[in-house]
Amino acid sequence: MRLTDREKAVVGVGGVAIVVVAFWIGVWEPVQARIELWKRRVEAKRVEYEKVEELAQRYADLQTRIRGIEKNLKRSKKFSILSYLENLAKRQGIHDRIVQMKPKPGEVTRYYRENTVEIRMEKVRLNEIVRFLFQVENSPELLRIKQLQIRPRFDDPDLLDVRFQVAAYEPLEGR
Predict the structure, then answer these.
(1) What pTM did the predictor assign?
(2) Is 130 exposed, middle or buried (0-12, 13-18, 19+ CB in 10 A)?
(3) Of all helices (H) and strands (E), which one includes residue 133?
């Protein structure tokens, strides 16, 4: 069977079209789909990597803070919270307003022991107690205010009755 030139051209164009479509469907699209899949995976891993980097930085910062706290704990072996608070009150001129200072049992963990002192003061001005509490929180030893109750006095509203707990920390032996 003899084909004319025109028919040969149509068959040739049709053959080329079939080859192109077959190539497109069989090779090009699967390769492009695989490339897109890998691009999405790479992007997801990049985001995951950034999160891990951020967590690693936070972990390093927390480790640095923990080492600083442990250093403060080890430094304060001969520290007495009662005498420190009493001397601080004397320096600030509010020692005479302390009604009660009593030690309370504190928390004991695997790593440290908490020593707590409850203090009651009467007839204290707001600026005096704020200055005192600021000095406690910013002392060279590791101290923190655990509870704070402030009540104005009925006989003189400018004066306050204050009760608070101060906690100091010491390392347990073997740490």
Answers:
(1) 0.58
(2) exposed
(3) helix 126-137
